[in-house]
C-alpha cells in the first residue's frame, strides 16, 4: 500500500508540459530519445496508453500503441515542417485526463474509440516533439529517438499492467484502474496549468 501511495503522490505532483521548452535545440537521436522522458505530461500519457492496451487485451495490445506511434510520427512531421497545430499544450494535457480516465474505467472503451483517441492525442504529442527540433537539421535521428522512447514508455505501461495482473484479477485490475484514476487527476492539474 505504501508503494501505491508514493506512486499516486508522484502522479499528483505532475508539472505542466515541462518537455516543451521552445528552445529549438533538439536535433539528435539522443535528444529525441530524451524528449518524451523530459516532461511528466508525455510520461503519464504514454505509460497510460500501455496500461489501456493491457486492459483491453487481444489485438488492442498492439493496435492501440501502434495507432499512437503512427499518428505521433505524423504530428512530428507536421511540427518539423513548421505546420502549427492549434491548442497543442491543451491537447497534450487533455490526453492525460482522457487516457487516464479510460484506464480508470477498466479499459471498457470500444476498440475503435480507443484507437481514435490514441491517434488524435498522439498528433499533439508528435507536434510538440517536432517543434523542438532545431531548424535545418535532419529529423530522422531525432524522430527515431522519440519513437523509440514512446515505444519504451508504452512497454513500461504494458509491462506494469501484466505485472499487476499477476496479483490476481481483482487486485491487479483494481490497482491498474486506481493508477488510471491518479493519472487522470494529475492530468486535470496539467490541464488547468495549460489553460
Could you characterize what this model shows?
- The structure is a single chain.
- The protein is mainly alpha-helical and 195 residues long.
- It contains eight helices and no strands.
- It has helices at residues 2-12, 29-34, 40-56, 60-80, 88-104, 111-131, 139-165, 169-194.
- Helix 1 (2-12) runs parallel beside helix 8 (169-194).
- It is globular, with a radius of gyration of 16 Å.
- The model is unreliable at 1-26 (pLDDT under 50).
Task: Considering the chains and any ligands shown, give keywords for the structure.
195 residues, 8 helices, mainly alpha, disordered N terminus, single chain, 75% helix, globular
Provide a concise account of the structure shown.
The protein is mostly helical and 195 residues long.
Reconstruct the topology from this structure:
Elements: H1 2-12, H2 29-34, H3 40-56, H4 60-80, H5 88-104, H6 111-131, H7 139-165, H8 169-194
